[in-house]
Design goal:
Length: 211
């Protein structure tokens, strides 16, 4: 949104004699466009002039890698439709105002690297990705038993790491010739110094080749 103008009307309402005064407020958003550049607030009351208060913008630069797994061997990702799945997930991310940077994986799990827009909480975004992609696969390919496992890993990166993370995700098949998903995931948790308990990790399938 280029600008959002918010007009706040303040009106003092007097009760009966001896009663306390009470303030009532009415807020009205009158104009919004695509990208917020500034927020202007005009405060008006019967005994005052307009005051234009310019509010500071909010700026973020957040890069997140999200990792989660399929539920059981009956839900493995097929090579024949994996690219369409990745493209669909990219659309979900874009529609929720984040930016897909890299999406790839193996039959038993997926890596999603995004420029994250915090206007939507990360748990809600992951849930939307899982729920919508699940419905898409079941409708498009009649996969009655396909499901994602509960839970996910989320890892943040600085801008200087973008190229390396994109390259790593793009080379998933190479990495998993010598390392299982379980080994990869535990290494990520360890590298980011995240405390974990084995019993709360994924139900790993140890699938390292495409059908």
């Amino acid at each position: 949104m280029q600008s959002t103008a918010i007009f706040v009307e303040s009106r003092i309402v007097k009760k009966q004699k001896g009663a306390e005064h009470r303030n009532t407020y009415r807020n009205k958003i009158i104009k919004t466009t695509e990208k917020v550049q500034s927020t202007e607030i005009f405060i008006d009351s019967p005994n005052s002039t307009h005051y234009n208060i310019l509010m500071a913008n909010t700026y973020t630069q957040l890069y997140m890698q999200i990792v989660f797994s399929v539920q059981g061997r009956e839900s493995i990702i097929k090579k024949a439709w994996k690219d369409e799945l990745y493209a669909y997930i990219g659309g979900i991310i874009s529609n929720n105002r984040s930016k897909p940077l890299a999406i790839n994986g193996m039959p038993d799990h997926i890596h999603i690297f995004i420029g994250y827009n915090p206007t939507m909480s990360l748990p809600d975004l992951v849930e939307e990705i899982k729920t919508s992609s699940n419905k898409f696969l079941k409708a498009k390919y009649r996969l009655a038993v396909f499901n994602w496992q509960k839970g996910y890993g989320a890892f943040s990166y600085s801008r200087s790491h973008i190229d390396a993370v994109i390259k790593y995700i793009g080379n998933q098949e190479v990495h998993h010739k010598t390392r299982t998903f379980r080994e990869e995931y535990i290494k990520m948790l360890t590298d980011f110094e995240i405390d974990y308990q084995e019993k709360y990790l994924f139900d790993f399938q140890h699938i390292s080749e495409w059908d």
